[in-house]
Every structure is written in structure tokens, then in C-alpha cells.
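Hey, resending since the last one bounced:
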Amino acid sequence: MNKYTRIRQIGEGAFGKAVLVRRKDSSVQCVIKEINTTKMSPKEREESRKEVAVLAQLKHPNIVSYIESFEERGTLYIVMNYCSGGDLYSKINERRGQLFSEDQILNWFVQLCLAIKHIHDRKILHRDIKSQKFPRKISFGTVQLAHTCIGTPYYLSPEIVENMPYNNKSDIWSMGCVLYELTTLKHAFEAGNMKNLVLKIIRGNYPPVSPQFSYDLRGLIAQLFKRNPRDRPNVNAILRKNFIMQRVRKLLSDQDLADEFSHTVMHGHKIAKALPPAPKPSADPARKPAPGPRPGSANKRYDPAAVYGAPLNSARRSLGDQKKRPSTPGRPVPVPGQVDWEKKKKERQELEQRRRAEMRKRVIDMASSQSIV
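The C-alpha cells again:
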């Protein structure tokens, strides 16, 4: 840290903070994320170092650039470029009800799509897309360093709040939340408390977008908010839409366009093969029992089950592993000692229904104590 002069703190999370600094040798301003690693287990500290190495590989004009990282006295420091123009959340608040033009909205959204495409093509999920993380460039943080479930509830997908398996389509839902926010200056799903917010997200109902915006834009928002993840388009499909591609061609040169769209998964190469050395760990502080990480906190790989309970598909897998008897027409009544497969099937369905009801009740009970400001 002796290379930098602190200016002011600009953000803080459960396990770290962001500080605006100035390099002493060039007077260039940067942002340093300070992560307290003393609260992490040895395995979590090692995973954080590996994820920082992955972060260093993300080179894209719409992603905030990584500069360097190092460790000192139990703290991991990540140095990033400073975006002085502010974020979309601030710009939305400054509008005071006056809507953005569709031209401006699509220009911003296309830049967001290009940034997300860059990480999805490399099999990386963002998991924390929101207007606060999108200045002119999207701020990308690792799961340990950036994601807090309860911290950003407006952008959570239905599969996450229902404790179901999730993939890159959860990022697509969050992108829909940002696009809706740009067109209406409001969150798509709002409520006075967490209980009602969770229910609104699960149902997927949101106030309609003003008809002053084009059919294409309103239709895209509807596609991004499909409750079933499989029905949502991936980011490459979004970018190939005619009215979106027109914007892409204005932002990218012919060479950049060819580079971006000549592949979907980095030409089959694994990003881990070219990783730079991870930050060199300093001597660990005196060992003492570390407090257990909180569910959904920033120092732990996000596990929906830790926040919302056991996923439903665990019961489905365990029951599905049982050997099923082929169905035959006119099956005779089971003899003593023989497995009644019809009865087993009915019991499995009832078990799934009970588990779903219990899980939803846990979600609502857990969330009811949280309030939305």
C-alpha cells in the first residue's frame, strides 16, 4: 500500500471496503478493494486468490480494468481502474421522473450485454448485476468479493429465491431488471418488506413499460423476465437481435465485431491455462478459530441452500436414483414382498409437494424479518 495515497472510502461490504486512492508515482486515481482474509478459512483464502487471477484475465472495454493485487497483514488488496463518471443508479436518481430516451437506454444496455458476453463466453457468472455496478463499464467482482444475497434483493431471479439450481440465465434476469429500471426509473419488483418482494419475484408480475418505447424494447424485457430460465435468451441471442445488432455495429469496429462474434466460448480454450500467478500470500496472522461465514456473505461461495434451505432437486435426485420398474400394460396386483412402483411414484410426488411448501414457507419466514427501505 506504500505506492498509494488514500483519498476517501467510497464503499463498504460485509468483509471489505472500496477506497479511492492516488498512485504516488503518477497521481493517477484508482480504486482498491480491501478484503479481510483473516475471517476466511485457508481453503477460502486460496479460492479468493484463484478468483483474483481469473479476474485479471478479463480484458474488455466495457469491464472495469484490473491493475494488480497483493496481500499485506491479513488483507487482500485488489487495485482497479476508477470510473469517475458515476454509475447508472446515480444517473437514474438524477432524472427525477424524466425518462431516458430509448436511444440512450439501448446504448447503455448494449455495452452491458457486451461485458456480460465476455464473461459468459468464458464460463463465468457475474451473480451480482445491478445498476450500482454499471458505470460506463461494468464492475466485475468474484463471488467471495462481491456477492451478498440479501444486499441486492431487487435483482434476484426466481430460481435463486426458490432455492433451485441456477446458471447464466440468472444473470439474464438481472440484466432484465437493469433494463426495466432504465426504461421506468423504478425497480421491476418492489415491496414494503422482503416477504412480499420474494412473492412478487416468484410470480414474475411487473408493472407494464410505457408504450412510448418500441415494441422491440418492451418485448425484450418480457423475454428477459421469463420465469423459466430455459425460456430466457442467452446473451449471444440478445446481441443478435436486429435492433440490438444495429447498436453493436455502431459501437464496435469491423475487426472487433468479428472478434466478438466469431465464437461463443473463447474458441474452446480454457481460461485457467493462461492464468497469471495468484497474489503472493503474506504470513498468516496468529492462528485462531475463525468465525463461521454467514450464509450469503461475501467471503463464501454463494450457496442458495445456506440462505433458503435445502434445494428441492436434492429430494428429486435421491428418489430418481432408485431403480424404476418398466411399466407394463395390465400389471397384476403386487404380491407380498414385491415393490409397489405406483405407490412409490405417488409417495414421491407427495414428498415433492410437501418439500416445496415447506421450502417456500421457510423463504417467507426468513424474509419477513427483513425490510426494504
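Residues 141-151, 265-276, 293-300, 307-324 have pLDDT under 50 and may be disordered.

Sorry for the duplicate.
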